[in-house]
Amino acid sequence: MRLGPPCLAHKMKKGITPKGKASSEKLLLSPSQVLKKLKELAKEIIKREGTESLVLIGIKRRGDILAQRLATIMEKMTDKKIPVGAICITFYRDDLDLIAEAPVIRGSEIIFPLEGKTVVIVDDVIFTGRTIRAALQEILDYGRPKKIRLAVLVDRGNREVPIQPDYYGIKVKAKKEDIVDILLKEEDGREGVFQRSRP
After folding, report:
1. What confidence tens digit (pLDDT) does each residue in 14-67 have?
2. pLDDT in tens, 145-161
């Protein structure tokens, strides 16, 4: 386990800014639809990857929440406990490079071996792909998994590196300047996926 400073910029990868307002908010997923998509993701991951060597590693602050939810759903489906770890990546901004040009690892919570495991990285949204690239580097520092897969709730496109999810809940057509908010009750007090365009 490697711990670092708290994740302070976890919202920035979605294009959320501390000042200014966006307009034209559109609901993409309601709370019940989020649950439905997670159940579909869990079922598909189990079908394709099995559970024998499966571990989930979520990217804080919402990817780790989704990873815990997926593990709970999988355990109910299979009666098998799925190990869950987390990586904190911060000080980055995917839409406007005002903080740093690349994601920075700020700590990891991986207390199980990764050698020979099927690792599924879990995140709330994939945008440019730079966050996932940083997560891959961190995971490989821990050991050599049998394979690494990527599961996200939302794929919003606009990739800058050739990284694509193996599993996704929904794909969204969004401009690079658009904002896609993934709100989870554990972190935000309310739940849903929303898309907004800047005014």
Report:
1. 444 334 444 578 999 999 999 999 999 999 999 999 999 999 999 998 999 999
2. 999 999 999 999 999 99
Q: Is the dihedral of CA 39, 44, 50, 55 positive or negative?
A: negative
CATH 2.30.38.10 fits 24-197, yes or no: no
Q: How far is CA 61 from CA 12, 25, 45, 48, 140, in A?
A: 11, 22, 22, 26, 21
Structure tokens that stand for 137 in this block? 């580097």
Annotated domain spans of the chain: 24-197
Helix axes 31-49, 63-78, angle to 10 degrees: 60
Task: Quickly tell me which residue has 């800014």 as its tokens.
Answer: 17
What are 89-145's pLDDT values in tens digits?
A: 875 444 444 444 566 766 789 999 999 999 999 999 999 999 999 999 999 998 899
Phi, psi of 126 (to 5 degrees): -110, 135
